[in-house]
Amino acid sequence: MPRVTWKGQWDGVAIAALVLLAFSFAFGGASQGHALRLALVELVSLPLLVLASRQLILTGLWREHRFSLGLVATIVAIPLIQSIPLPPAVWTILPGRDQMVLALELAGLEPDWAPLSVAPDQTWRSALALAPPTALFLAMLSLSHVQRERLVQCCIAAAIAGIILGVAQLASGGDSLYLWNWTRAGSVTGFFANRNHLASFLLIALPFAVIVGAATLRRRDQRTSALWFGALFAGLVVVTLAAIRSRAGITLFAPVMVVSLLAGWVAAGRGRPGPGLLVMVGSIGAALTAVTVMALPPILARFDQDKPEARFERWPLIAEAAQNYLPLGSGVGSFDAVYRSVEPLEELDSTFFNQAHNDYLETWLEAGWLGIGVILAFLVWYFRRCWTAWKAPPSREGDLQRAASIGIGVLILHSAGDYPLRTVTLAVVFALCCGLLELTQRSAQRT
Length: 447
Fold this sequence. Notes:
Number of helices: 17
Strand order of the largest sheet: 1-2
Order of helices and strands: HHHEHHEHHHHHHHHHHHH
Number of strands: 2
């Protein structure tokens, strides 16, 4: 069946993917307290989910991606299975449910049918929240290379818009420019509620800008605008990270920049570094020098803590709670309910610990051994696709795939000390990168 295109680049799937990206940036920048905004993103993702699935089935492309599609199906199935009502004889004997049974007995009530999850409403919401990243992942497998490039360019444009908004937030001194009412005034957050998540997004966009710019050297492209843009964007990210003062962003910047430059060298043709790459390195060096001279003390102050980080002190308690719910877990999205039941009285104050600040530990609590198995399967997939992408010769598709591998790595590392993938915007961008990297499988099968 012929695909109807608009100006040769945009068809139904591509337009729906672009709309989903736009809604994700506008309404998906927080991980809590935004049910209506999240619902808008989820509703917008449904047409793309249908169109992309249909395209994969009609073209038969799904056969080339059985493992990754199976992995996605498993991720979606976990919260759905945890939401299925179970008879009292089954759920009452599950690990960690003794307090729930005791509460019913004290109230004089008989146990009724109940799901595996101890917070079924949150588990169902978590299942719905998987629709946007799932839809975009399927779309990336069915789009053309030009269409995928356009979506990447939209992400870079969104990064620049986020930087501009962050500068305006810092300059305003008030809270009128923040999209989320619980964001502290004076923070640089852009579209996000959390400055750490803006930092991660910029680090994901960075390798794409660097690699696409460096690729012009390989193609002997007379238009050097992409190269200059990559150099300026890299310098701008350095300065913006200094303004954001995210410890995660600052810590991850050096390895991300080194690997991005390495990928840029590959994109340039793996030859002797020429003036173009030296200009890019020089812009980064100039930005780092400016940051060191003007903003080093407040950056170092972010790492100067008089007492241990609270999240580190709470991880052993979370791990102990997770043990009580093994092997099946407490239910995706149930962390808040479970942690409140085990939180020490001396830690109760006006603030609350709503996430584990370690997605691997939180997954262990909520999804048990199956969740850990999915993470291990994903890591196997990731490293295999990275190996294929990085050993492949330079090409337009290979450039994007290597950049995507770096972007995924940013979120894998950041998830060890935070919860970036519980923010819809970053989950959608993560799915975009995974879709690009998965295409190495298709390239390998056709060579």
